[in-house]
Amino acid sequence: MPPKLLALLLICAVPMASAQSIYSWKDASGRVHYSDNPPPDAQTRKLREAPIAPARPAVQGQAAPQETYVEKEQAFRKRRAEAAEAEEKARRDEVQEQNRQQMCTNLRQQLAGLESGQRIARFADNGEPVFMEDNERAAEVEKTRASIDKNCK
């Protein structure tokens, strides 16, 4: 057998052998046996103990356990969804603020027009202009000021 192939087989076999317990015993005729299964009788000698996986710490003072790849992926997806949700909320808040600013600008312009003293006309159902009287203008000014006070702080 070529030396490279033998070395490769040994390298592959070492991890498998190191993960098992090995038992040694003598049978009735005096022959020594080696196996990864315990013998049927009680006269055994364990040569090597199988490595034990570290248990997850249950006490708070100990180090945190390693996350699995699935847990890491779930945490990443959760963070990404939360970031997208926060970005969407920020965008909605920005649009809402722009709409509020535009409404306030329109209300202030309407108030300036009402307080200017010029004649203001509205159109009736038949399409003819109807001019506002002083009491209608005063009521409209109060209504516009109340809207500005309520919405434009």
Automatic annotation (TrEMBL):
Superkingdom field: Bacteria
Chain ranges of the DUF4124 domain: 9-63
Pfam families: DUF4124 (PF13511)
Signal sequence bounds: 1-19
Protein name as annotated: DUF4124 domain-containing protein
Entry keywords, A to Z: Signal
Keyword DNA repair applies: no
Region described as Disordered: spans on this chain: 80-101
InterPro entries xrefs: DUF4124
Originating species: Zoogloea dura
